[in-house]
Design goal:
about 290 residues, alpha/beta, Dimethylsulfoxide Reductase, domain 2, 3 domains, four-stranded parallel sheet, about 35% helix, disordered N terminus
Length: about 290
Amino acid sequence: MVLRPPEDRPANPASAPSMSHHPSSTRHDVPCGFCGLLCDDLSVTTDHGRVRIDAGACPRATTGFDAANRALEAGATPRIKGQAASLEQAIAAAADILRGARAPLFGGNGTELPGMRGVMDLADATGGTVDHMNSYSLFRNFHVLQNSGWVVTSLSEVRNRADLLVCFGTDIASRLPRFYERCLWVDDTLFGLRAEDREVVMLGAPKDASLATSPAGRKAELLACANEDLAEVAQALRALVAGRPVTGDAVAGIATADLARLAERLKAAKYGVVAWVTSDLDFDHAELAVQSAC
């Protein structure tokens, strides 16, 4: 959803064009911005301002576009102390509040990149603090990046190269519904890698391991433990990959022999990938689990 700059918006909400002024049209290869995959193969039809997905829909896309439709139907009217106002009046009132604030906080920030840049510029100009609505999850990654760094890949590289995917405390598709369809169970790759050549292993407590089942019916291997124990499991895997002994028959309920086999598969993989979703690692000091996986 693109937010028009103030100079492009109608001065009075009542003068905004009604939904009946929007002609019907169908567009293809439309990007979806409702998860990190940014799928760009949607076909959508707009009719009187409403958006309908004709192809490429997933639960998140459907929910997101439906919410946009409802917001459009409801209309957005600026208000000052509960009273309707023009956009210019609302902006002026907000500016007055910010001028008098000593420590403004800009929270939420559920917007696209240009909107976020605008928030950052505003915070910089007013000496404010920015707190994203997902900051609690984001900082699980930031702490690792600050403390030890990491080596990352891209969705394109996963699609074209990954022959072993280890899902760390997540099934991925609960958060990114078309991940396996778009990035793993594909045969159209740059280097001849086919869907049947790929393996998926899930560590921890994913919401639904069946989401990683291949089109041929091959299920992901699950090495189950509590997500809170993933740091211990990852440290054991690091030791096994490095050729160091791990004592005991099990680590956090996972047989040491199973971890040893996974370590060998990681070493043998041409392009092994460990993936996690920090929102699924919802426990104290989860950054230590992420750091161990890196």
